[in-house]
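Running co-folding for thiamine diphosphate.
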Amino acid sequence: MASLVQAVRLALHYGEDKLGVTDIFGEDAGPPLGGIFTATQGLKTAWNSPLDERGLIGMAMGIAYAGGRPVAEIQFCDYGFNVIDLLKIAGNQRWASAGAFELPLVVMTPTGTGIRGSLYHSHSFESWASRLPGWKIVMPSNPLDAYGLMLSAIRDPNPVMVLLPKALLRVKGGEKIPGEPADELELSRRIDAPVGDRSDWIPQWPDVEPYFIPFGKGALTRKGTSATVVSYGRQLPICVQVANELFASGLGDVEVLDLRSIFPYDWSLISQSVAKTGRVILVNEDTEVTNFGEHLYRRIVEEFFYDLLAPPVLLAGKHVPGIGLNQEYEMNTVPQAREIREALVKLLEVQP
Amino acid sequence: MASLVQAVRLALHYGEDKLGVTDIFGEDAGPPLGGIFTATQGLKTAWNSPLDERGLIGMAMGIAYAGGRPVAEIQFCDYGFNVIDLLKIAGNQRWASAGAFELPLVVMTPTGTGIRGSLYHSHSFESWASRLPGWKIVMPSNPLDAYGLMLSAIRDPNPVMVLLPKALLRVKGGEKIPGEPADELELSRRIDAPVGDRSDWIPQWPDVEPYFIPFGKGALTRKGTSATVVSYGRQLPICVQVANELFASGLGDVEVLDLRSIFPYDWSLISQSVAKTGRVILVNEDTEVTNFGEHLYRRIVEEFFYDLLAPPVLLAGKHVPGIGLNQEYEMNTVPQAREIREALVKLLEVQP
Amino acid sequence: MTVKFPPQSSKKTLVGRQGKSIPSDLALKIHQIMVRSRHIDERMIKMSKSGEAFFWIGGPGEEAFNSCLGLQVKRGKGPEFDYLHLHYRSLATMQAMGLEPAASLRQMLMKRTDRNSMGRNFPGHYAIPEWNVVPVTSVIEVQFAMAPGTALMQKRLSQDAISIVVGGDAGIAEGDFTSCMTWSTRPGLRLPVLMIVTNNGYGISTPHETQHSEKNIIDRGIPFGIPGEVVDGNDVVESWHGIQKAMEYCRTERAPYLLEAQVSRLHGHSSSSGAARVEGEKDCLEILEKHLMAQGLAAREYIEAIHDSAQQEMQEAARKVLAEPNPTAADVPTHTYAPSPVDAVYPVDFDGLPGKGPKGQRDKGGSHGVPGSSSSPGTSLWGR
Amino acid sequence: MTVKFPPQSSKKTLVGRQGKSIPSDLALKIHQIMVRSRHIDERMIKMSKSGEAFFWIGGPGEEAFNSCLGLQVKRGKGPEFDYLHLHYRSLATMQAMGLEPAASLRQMLMKRTDRNSMGRNFPGHYAIPEWNVVPVTSVIEVQFAMAPGTALMQKRLSQDAISIVVGGDAGIAEGDFTSCMTWSTRPGLRLPVLMIVTNNGYGISTPHETQHSEKNIIDRGIPFGIPGEVVDGNDVVESWHGIQKAMEYCRTERAPYLLEAQVSRLHGHSSSSGAARVEGEKDCLEILEKHLMAQGLAAREYIEAIHDSAQQEMQEAARKVLAEPNPTAADVPTHTYAPSPVDAVYPVDFDGLPGKGPKGQRDKGGSHGVPGSSSSPGTSLWGR
Ligand SMILES: Cc1ncc(C[n+]2csc(CCOP(=O)(O)OP(=O)(O)O)c2C)c(N)n1
Ligand SMILES: Cc1ncc(C[n+]2csc(CCOP(=O)(O)OP(=O)(O)O)c2C)c(N)n1
Ligand SMILES: [Mg+2]
Ligand SMILES: [Mg+2]
């Protein structure tokens, strides 16, 4: 089974081959490295850029203006904070020109904790990104979704940001990418660059097939009736695991929604689940003051105030200036399985 | 009575004179202009900077490291979006160094709509700013508060951002700055730079007095019992006006809180009012997805779920890529008195 | 425009300060564009004072240089043609390219008919896809980060189109000015970017020389091997040739070039600073007219007729435009998103928060059905 | 350190590539620092591979230049002393300034005793207030935006302290590198900033020459009138004199200077790229030792003893540090805010969201009383 980062690479290959991608670029995105997480290895349009995120986003905008289809990688989302103005502008060009200019560009960037990245490689970006009108923002939690969302990002004629959960990049999925070789080792032999000198290496791309996950479509990852968990990205598999454990312990049958699209989010999915369960918990690891989960929280309370059986709960990262290197910091800063379990148990116990 | 921008100027003068301010700088902050909104006219430590916001914030950090007390002006908050990384770093320096480095710096910047500023002079900044741990963020709604918050910003040994509502800068207050001359025209003669050549002009500063509004202290601007309005900045006087009208029409006696501090916010003030009224509406003009008001919304529901008589309401700016120049755009993008009134009337009508 | 050009012998030329020349019919064409541009700006300044409009920013003092620029643009749509990444003072550039004067008034008056932004953006903030004029932003210098992108696509075409980026002298302090040079001179991949700085000596109130130690702005190109020239932007002939040479270089070398035009700022920074006429600044239009007369290329009566005609044109345009419709509340969210085949919420355009727009309202209650898990049929396998 | 320096005649000198020299006792002191630094880095690389620690980044290959830099810093606290705005490869600089080797291990092992960040930040990310070493961030090049600020305060003192800012060769593509030059050369206000670029030829995997057209990095100073020099950072003598000359200039001229040190990257970018020893890169330590022996300044036995001693020192330090305490959950929010007399919520430090921290809990229910309106007594008039 492909890992998440392999799925991204396969999607980019499909994008180059079939969807008109002209440029995949970023710091260390081209040969020999092919991205510090290997997301861009072996791709024919991948190239290395200067160390300059402002130039990077400007370049993507220019390419898109002139009819190209760029995919720009910001090496870590932590290094995108000096280009918020350009991201805002990319998001407003169509609106500002009353429909005259489109900017079909994709920015992909690793986000979140889980690689022991300390202060400057652990930021979450979705709350910031959700504040960029004109953009579509997605975050997969498994390889197949990464593939399907990346293809949609490339096909969509608007700016799309693909947030890749750092912690899950090397995690393999439970389902195959359409067209993925049966044998996982074969996949690796075909598309992973060899260790050492790779100057003569050429990938043997499998014939992957189109698979578009539409924006605004979440996934009902675990069906349940007692409560609703809304999550995405790195926290999603943790939430599923906790839900399964709770069920096994007979403590409840919790529904877990994988948002997949941060914006537009799948309101239909959320609202139907909340209407059914009356109990909801929102889980993400971004800092908790002005957190994207608070937007959903507000929407849910506005619409389901009289149906809710308990006050909704937000579990998010602490409002502190950084995430420390020693794991004591990270474990006590972003939600852990234990806290999710405790919060869910408490939520299920509330008597309306 | 001093206008809000005059109050800021008086506070900066007090800061230079009594609180050790060493540098007040920014694009056009020095002579001859003294700031495009005149906030820095006549100040002895004010100087013009290159047109480079990154250099500006870096400079402020450097000055603060080396024992100075800088006040940096970003000409419009709309031009602060390329320095979010530096702002984040300024907010984390103490935490990152486990208390070894302090950065006593003030950034002040005009924010929000109301000067017909079109796409790039109408942004709100408080939702972004509230996502900067390590910072304190304030936004006055009247001249006296501007004075008191600015003095606290200067005295506080942490990075503080003072968001100045563009639309209110020229509005005069209802109360005097301590030490302000009795005659408003005299104040103007003494501290407003003359039109035309001003190279020989020296301000005659009145002896203004210390007046510190502590961070985290909101103001109960209008006492009431039927519902709570939480607002700040430009929307505050509009909310008060609407509340007065409602009262006059016999529709309700609405309490209006002026947050003044965005972070830390006055939870004590908010929670006591909500506990009393059971109905709450949050009003600001920032875009509505991942809006600071949604943070307060979440806190309120978490804590007062069972006490609320109606679902809380957020009135905020629409999630669109910009605010257009023609007033039809602005009036239909950010909350107007009419909408606040309608929302309040509806909120008061809800039967629990 | 009813005025006829005075008959010109094909030999006649306008001679500039440095002895170079341009044909007299070209000089008169430029003059006409300059006059018209000046009248548009002056009309707009009046409107900003009368309260008919809110804000003015424009290019009085830059007409000589900008007219010469606009006339030499390879105008069209797509990478076979020049891209323009402009500053907000490019009114004369646009006039030279052929924009109808009324277009500026529509923009100034924030009419729904404003072709650039439907009354959303400031005057001078053009967006004209047919001519590759990408949206002008107020955010100083960001256009310099974008220009290498269009130039990269042009480089690949192996034709002669270039990317022209224009900014002011204060703006060069932003990092994006350097980013443009870095990204346009990557080894083996120099890009055809014509970097133009219109140096009017000020950023709002701040004199250039109080903040900048660079002797000439074009010196900034030296470390990157970018050649350049400083031209007197108040001199039409010098401007014409400076631009011609610069474009020639970019078009044939497929590499960047830096052009600094020393221009005047005749009405202050914008309406925010009053926009009163500034004393003591050289006026490129007066200079040109003096030369045209001194060199026997045009009589005073002809020049006056050109002015009268422009004046009249403005009046007519204003009358027409004032009557045109304003945007309405319904216009607020439109044109946010391009239609997308892979968006379940915004297949056509943004229409409010998910579940809140007219479409969302339709959806509410579940016409989508509960979307399936990623393996269920709820997830589409489009394109198969 | 038990090894004694071999007795040196005061006349003896180490002669460098270009004929310049430094006294032999200085050369041996530098050697000792270099050896120690190399051993610290090698030990840390091992720890990153053994799983004792997560991440390594450091300076093997930069010891010659960085030792010479650290020894010439005017060390102390406040603007009378040099400020250091460092890159993450400055281990040898810190060793030369006097940091105890265990300090690096504490940082590597994320101990609560880590004096830089209490186990919060990466190795190499120093923060030492006593020596004006402001916190090193991973965010490339931001230090260049900050250096003019400390230099401004130093300029005002009219003493000789300077601000030293160090970055890598790839990082010069960020706008902040230019911002540093703009802000340090404002007319009439040049600032004493020593801008150092350690050029190891790479940004992670990307060769410098594939992205940069600047012939020498120091050419970037030309438009700003900033002088500079390129030195062989693998040569101790050249490095020493290059730094000396640069500092002399900044200290006396009170103006910026650009110094480019050509250095090696002996173990790849960081532990993320494996940190294996790289073939074919010049090793400044080997070079120095060869010269010391060839010029008769040290015998092989002496050199080996220095290495052994450093090795031993490392082992002892590691044993000690490994036993030191880790941070705990309670450490997460501390040191966010400095105590403030004007903060009603965080008078001491951050302790959770308003109304949620221990203090907030106290407040809840209204120990504050309902604060008054801005005119009521609820608002304090402190300081009266
Ligand atoms: C990033 C940014 N910072 C600040 C401003 C506010 N501002 C508008 S124009 C201007 C001065 C620009 O000067 P210059 O680049 O010389 O252009 P000019 O207006 O003189 O043609 C400033 C500071 C802005 N628009 N964008
Ligand atoms: C703003 C920013 N972008 C990207 C990165 C990721 N990154 C870390 S080190 C590095 C390369 C730095 O190269 P250089 O400046 O030459 O320094 P060196 O590591 O070679 O000493 C990159 C791209 C970063 N830390 N900061
Ligand atoms: Mg200018
Ligand atoms: Mg390097």
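Result summary
Chain B touches chain D through 73 residues (CB under 8 Å).
DSSP finds eleven helices and twelve strands in chain B.
Job closed.
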